[in-house]
Design a protein that fits this description.
This protein has about 90 residues and is mainly α. It contains four helices and no strands.
């Protein structure tokens, strides 16, 4: 009864997130490989793999605070960089 996938997904952990049913990829002319690449690209862009990786192991509350603080400072630096050097 074990799935032989390279990435095991805890469906209960993801069920209530925005990833539950938002992704739909159409297969054109039986080109399944292209559809899989498209789906993977969408999932990466939305941060799906990052969330799965984080939920793979228990994260202590203190570690979660540190991670969130680090992400926030990174986001703020990125926004400030955009304000100082706008793209033409």
């Amino acid at each position: 009864m074990t799935e032989n996938n390279s990435l095991k997904i805890n469906k209960d952990a993801i069920k209530n997130t925005k990833f539950a049913s938002d992704f739909e990829v159409h297969v054109d002319s039986n080109n399944v490989e292209r559809a899989i690449k498209l789906l993977k690209r969408k999932l990466i862009r939305e941060g799906f793999y990052k969330i799965v990786k984080q939920r793979k192991y228990f994260e202590k509350p203190s570690e979660a605070k540190k991670r969130k603080k680090k992400e926030a400072s990174k986001r703020i630096r990125k926004e400030q960089k955009k304000l100082l050097h706008p793209v033409a």
